[in-house]
Amino acid sequence: MTRRADREPASGWVVAANTSAGSVDDSALGRAVVRLARDGPVRVRHTDGPEGVVSVAHELPDSRLVIFGGDGTISSAVDRLIDAGLGDRPLGVLPGGTGNDFVRAIGLPTEVGAATDLLVDSRPRKLSALRVAERFGINVCHAGLGAAAARTASGLKARLGPFAYPVGAGLSGVRQSAWTARITADGEQLTDGELLMVAMALGRTIGGGTDLTSRSSVTSATADLLVSEGASALARARLGAALLRDDPRQTRAVDHIQATQVRIESEEPIPVNLDGEDLGDQTDVTVKVVEEAWTVLAPR
Length: 300
Description:
Blueprint (H helix, E strand, L loop, with lengths): L3 H4 L5 E6 L7 H12 L4 E6 L2 H10 L4 E6 L1 H13 L7 E5 L5 H5 L6 H9 L2 E10 L2 E3 L2 E5 H10 L2 H4 L3 H12 L3 E7 L2 E14 L3 E2 L3 E2 L11 E7 L3 H12 L9 E6 L1 E14 L2 E22 L2
Helix pairs in contact: 2-6, 3-4, 7-9, 9-10
């Protein structure tokens, strides 16, 4: 029989919860802590942002570090950990947000109790990241209509919860015009014309479960690249409806390939979003896949 001391650090678990996000569910956090405590000692650290997670990682180097939060909280923490040279530090994640798209990508359930049960038996796994300028992301970077939908959805989350993104997509499909842009993937020009959306995806979903692709490529050297062209009101409405129905890949206007790097050059500023974080409107943005950039505690 394997003794507990042989299979876990003496210092057990430390759970970092981002109080500055304003959406920490204390009840769900409590359930996760109780479940983890069956496996070993648990500390809880309430942080005020991603820098606090780095501080916790330095303070308790032998504990298994867990982030409790949504996609933005997890993504920002991973970005800072990579920047601090802690990409090899295994990081557990528990769903504590509205969307929880990343936990879906690594095979965790979105219910915190079930996710905690799997986390206890998880093992370190190297994952890829998306790099946009100096920022690292873990799930999806998208520009155009999808990013505009996320911007619209941000004002609807309080009322609609996980339904905010598909509703925002439908509204953006009606209201938003196309952008004139050039898309280059791995040095090859794909298109130069009217663009509705481009997405570089490691995970499968955005906006709390809206499907972009059929696979999760979080360990891959390539990401799924989706490009939607067209300028007509019909094309916008079709893409908006596809996002609403969770099947953008089924629309005839969407091209789908794998790529390691994509560059978007637009004549006018185009909205850009990385893991739910609004990066503003940009005219030139490059997204690159970085292999084995960080380490997660993932289900077997």
